[in-house]
Amino acid sequence: MPIGPSTYRAARLAHAMHEASTAPGAPGLWARVRAVPRMVRAVRSGRYTGLTSTRLMMLLAGVGYVVSPVDLVPEGFLLALGLVDDLLVIGWVATALMRETEDFIAWERGATAWAGQRARGQDRPEGRTVPSHVVPD
Fold first, then answer.
1. Which of 25, 31, 66, 97 has the greatest count of CB atoms below 10 A from its CB?
2. Which residues of 62-93 are buried (b: 16+ CB within 10 A; e: fewer)?
3. Residue 120 reports pLDDT greater than 90
4. Residue at 131 is within a domain
5. Is residue 136, in this structure, part of any structural domain at all?
6. C-alpha dist (Å) from residue 66 to 10, 59, 89, 97, 107
């Protein structure tokens, strides 16, 4: 039985998610899932600016579309073709969430390191430079 394009894309997405979660130093899938509520709170409060509110709303709308019983292309009417739109949205949401959670967790680790060293009375995290302005002579 030949593999269809949607099955191939789903397998590639699963493989990419597995690779991203098991790369050395990368956060695992469970760490990413736990980071999503923190990321939403940080974006809404304005503390995290690496993700815009518009993109966050698009991600939430994508999740809502997939779990909603209302579809643009209903599965019951068009069978397999009705699943393709869901697969496309799932693929986009999963890929975007992998990227956004990785960036957020890296930001969170950096912000935590900065806050921890500030609490100990240090001006800046060790090994990092402080952004500054160079004034020409």
1. 97
2. beebeeeeebeeeeeeeeeeebbbbbebbbeb
3. no
4. no
5. no
6. 15, 11, 7, 15, 29
- For residue 85, the Cα-to-chain-centroid distance in whole angstroms is 20
Model confidence, pTM:
0.62
Instruction: Decide if 127 is inside a domain.
Output: no
Count of structural domains, the chain: 1
> Whole-angstrom Cα distance, residue 117 to residue 114?
5
In angstroms, the CA 113 to CA 116 distance is 5
Q: Render pLDDT for 68-100 as a digit per residue (tens, 0 to 9).
A: 877 666 666 666 666 777 788 888 899 899 999
Mean pLDDT for the stretch of residues 130-137: 62
Which tens digit of pLDDT belongs to each residue from 21-44? 566 677 888 889 899 999 999 999
* 109, 25, 30, 38: CA torsion to nearest 10: 20
> Does the residue 129 lie in any domain?
no
Residue with tokens 């809404």: 44
CA proximity to 93, closest of 123, 125, 57: 57
- Rounded to the nearest integer, the mean pLDDT of the chain is 74
